[in-house]
């Protein structure tokens, strides 16, 4: 999955082989409106640390569900960490649930912010940066978590990003790569100072990646000890039971050994381990209650921003207010032609998924505003060598983006053609739409312009473009993912991340037939539950992961090497099985 959200690094075009992190597509943003945001009284001030020994802080970015494994390791060794989460990804596939945050907070860990939708705050307007930072803090406050610390996604820093973070009431914001580290700067300072030189540009080493060893992690601690004092924030993302689950992952074995080492150093009085908030100190500032600019609003006429793709930022891989969106296993290439008036989406090496150009899934800078219950005429001028259809995403009243609908199919067309479709009535909580013509097989599509116009009450519904009856193709259902995530963070999004999230499971490609295409993308059906095994099994060993809940809720069980049923000891742990992310059920056996 690429689309939106991988790690703290991003790629516009690549062979898409696996999903690594947070939903750029993040395809999830949680927007707390002015009416819904709660005003929280400031919490009691935290005392800034005054330690004569180096301070180590363990931070976890993106809010991936496997970070619960890391929290359990920290808990066993009496260590507290800071978990920077995206409120827009909460309760999404592959991400922490609200109940998980409660559990973390009750165990002594700090809940921090990573913006609403894992957005590089240095790449958007000040207004959008404020929406992303303030909305995230307000959303988390609504859920009972008063946050004081933020981590910049992708370590994207600018003066406008800093301004947004300060305006939203945070006490600090963390960067990456500004201290000495195995993968990064060699001539940077060894530690951050206490108090920091700039609390809204906290310096930290490069993020931990899969190539880091236990000795590399210990080296950061001894680096701080050699400096005599100072602060060493260490940034983790994914926590993997086995090596290779993510390019920005750490194995549980390595993290366990590192936590054991930290515990012994704390007991020896050689270091202190603290959360970010406990190092910075200070009172939690009041929560803003939605008094920021709303962004795009409902208007007559075409609501698509930059509909003809004329505006292109210098060096950008997509037009202003548009994003390349890909998921599944194939090679996607996006090419600007005719001086930026057109965009070619070319797919090769196809196995699964789709690629498209869509309006940005944001909180108001670009996404076309929409009203609950309204219908919209979507149109796009294009040429295509393959069948195509509109995929439509909707943002709900809290800003969470999700896949919603697909149009009928449109035939290939060598000449410029306009695909037109009128949507059903929007859901009752809809606030915005994003749509695009998708490529589901080897071939290419050239997009020239797009339009989204509301159907006014009393107006006749426009006649849609006839559905073709050409050769059928597989019809995967594009589903919002939550990107992801990292190195500078989401494997996403890799987004621009994606930002981290499960990858949609496409319908297997079948040999072409002459049967008519479906009128819209069919929804997956649930697989009947098999008869469960006895509930008193003992988890005497870790099982080989095989089956469980998949992205569409289909049911299966974990299998041990002999093929008999068993259960996963980690509730809600997600994993890869034949290229698809699966989710585990609650334990039914006693964990050893």
In short:
The chain has 592 residues and is of the alpha/beta class.
Describe the structure using short key phrases:
six-stranded antiparallel sheet; 14% helix; Polysacch_Deacetylase; five-stranded parallel sheet; disordered C terminus; Glyco_hydro/deAcase_b/a-brl; 25 strands; 592 residues; TIM Barrel; disordered N terminus; Jelly Rolls; alpha/beta; hydrolase activity, acting on carbon-nitrogen (but not peptide) bonds; 22% strand; Peptidoglycan/xylan/chitin deacetylase (PgdA/CDA1 family); NODB_dom
- Highest CATH level, the class of the domain at 58-115 and 172-280: Alpha Beta
Strand order within the widest beta sheet: 1-12-13-20-15-18
CATH architecture of the domain at 58-115 and 172-280: Alpha-Beta Barrel
The helicity comes to 10-25%
Query: What's the total number of strands?
Result: 25
Mean pLDDT equals 77
Largest sheet data: 6 strands, antiparallel
Specify Rg, calculated over alpha carbons: 24 Å
Biased composition (Pro residues): 519-535
Domain NodB homology: 54-276
Region (Disordered): 455-535
GO molecular function, one term: hydrolase activity, acting on carbon-nitrogen (but not peptide) bonds
